[in-house]
Every structure is written in C-alpha cells, then in structure tokens.
Amino acid sequence: MPQSSRAPAPKPSRCGLLLAGLVALGPATNAAAQSDWTEPREPFQIAERLYYVGTAGLAAYLFTSDEGHILIDAPLDENVERVLASIRTLGFDPADVRLLLASHAHFDHVGGMARIKAATGAELVLSEADAAYVAQGRDFGLAGLSGYPPAPVDRTIGHLGTVRLGPWTLTAHLTPGHTAGCTTWAGEIVIEGQARRFVSVCSLTVLGSYTLVGPDATYAGQGRDYCMSVAHLRTLDPEVFLGPHGSFFGLDEKLAARRAGNATAFVERGRYGRYLDNALRSIERTLTEQGHSGGCAALLPTP
Can you list the domains of the chain with their CATH numbers? Predict the structure, then answer.
C-alpha cells in the first residue's frame, strides 16, 4: 500500500489539550475565547491596596503593603514579564513581593511561578497536595502536557491556615476537586472606606479527562471533594467574588463599570451564588454520565 503524502498533523498546544477537556461552566471556556490568556491588560485597582496584574483572561492579584506585597497566581510562563511590568506600572517594585500564593497546580496559573520567584525572591506557599506538582513542574490530571518550569515550594498550608503580611490576613480554604489541593483564598478588603469580604475561588470546573468516581477515579474521592467544596464555598457568602479566570466573575463587565465611575463595581453577591449553582449542575451531570446515581447528596456525609 503506498504511503500517504499528507503531512503529519501538528502537535496540539498545551492550551488546546487543556481546553479539549473542559466541561463549560460559562461562555469563555471555548478555545477561541482563550486567545485572551496572553492578551495584555492594563493593571487596575480593585480595592484599597488590591490590584489586578494579570492578562485579559488569566488573573493575578497583587495585595500591597508597606511591609511588602503578596501575589496570587503566576499565569503562564510566557506572561511573567507582563505581570512584572504591571507591578512596576502601578509604582511598585517586584523585589518587594514577599509572598507567592496560588489557586491550583495547572500551567495556566502557576506556569510562571519559577520565574516570578527568581525575580522577586519571594516565599512560595502552597497547599501540600498541589506543592508536589509545582515543585516538579507538572500539571495535576492533565496527561500529555509538557509541563512548566518547576518552582521550589518554601512551605505548605492547610485548610483554614493563614498567611499574614502587613495589614493582610488571607485564609486558605482548601476546595479540592479541580486539583487535589485547589485553594480558595479569602479575606477582608476595603472599598470606598468600607470593609468587604472577598473570596477568590480556586475553580470548580470539571475537565472532560476526569473520572470522578469508581476504581478509575482521577484520584480517590474526587467526586466527593467537588461536592464538599461547593458546600463549603456556600458558607462563605462574599461581597466581592474573584477567581483565576475573569470569566468566572464577570471581570470585563465590572471593569467597564469601574472605569465609568462606579467605585464599588466589584461589590456584588448574586454572581457568586449563580457560579456555585452552575458548578453543582456540571458536577452532578458528570456524576450521572459516569454511572453514579444520587448526585452529590449520595456522596456527602449525613448531617
């Protein structure tokens, strides 16, 4: 049989492999929309001493103080210079970043952590379950990806552990499922002179490559963890909802309102509840498709 003269298909990109596995929770989870992952975005203020320094599609948050700064997430290795430039644009020195935190061990959120750590000299604090992946430059649950530069982890943090720097006290809420060490960060910020509780959700997205229950589960108890994470997040009731992707919390809409003069544009309760409702439907749909009857109610402990 003669060989085909057709050229071999190009190897899929890391983003393409990840996006192929997504079960959509919103309109921005399709591949076309993810061109904004490396699209520059001017940094802007969310609250007193809290700034957005990520790209159009991947968030990074800078908490500033006279004693030093905290950075949550280092989205993609190729975005590191943009993040550092955004910090400088705001008038801060990246060398004053003292603490590095993360939402979860996927390349689009920690892929730049090694370079940012090298540039700042900051201490990297992660959940124990995700620390092993970041220290090895591996993605949790994403087979076929080439990884990212490994970053040495200085210490780990457990559920309801806190990090403190200057006026900031940030609490780690472990909300596993999307990764085994998925970490939601919460605390108090000030907007227009009023204290507001914020929650930066890790993620509740179910990847199409995940098996949530049974002997072939991506990890033992993953389905239960997703369900318990939704239940825990419902207890937090933030006034300001943030996350590693702006699409989770309506970033573009809120930023437009803020630029139009609404200083409290990021204060909103309804979207957080809708996000959790949508996530729960996606989780339970996946459980059903994978042969588990009873949904989350059958996996959660009896009160």
Answer: 14-299 (3.60.15.10)
